[in-house]
Amino acid sequence: MTSAVGPQDSPATVLPEQKKSLQARLARVEGQLRGIQRMIEREEDCEAIAQQVAAARGALNRAFAEIVSCALQHRVLEAGEAGVDTREKLAEITRLIARYS
Fold this sequence. Notes:
This protein has helices at 16-41, 46-82, 86-100. It is mainly alpha-helical. The protein has one domain (16-100): Up-down Bundle (Methane Monooxygenase Hydroxylase, Chain G, domain 1).
């Protein structure tokens, strides 16, 4: 498995101001997933369960977008500061998005 981080690159970490928001979003998703499990245990309507799964999936997608945005900001800013062609860094992020979305 290859990484979008090259040997000379530092890892892109979640910024402190993003961390709290991201943790809260993921905690809500965790609660949603527990709720979905209870709905299945209670044999609730499939459509209602599907609606909740879609809502949890949407929240995870938003978390993913926030994390990719963080990586994009780090990579492009680092590249610009180092005088590296930002197009190369943008291509790395595009590959990351394609791989995980």
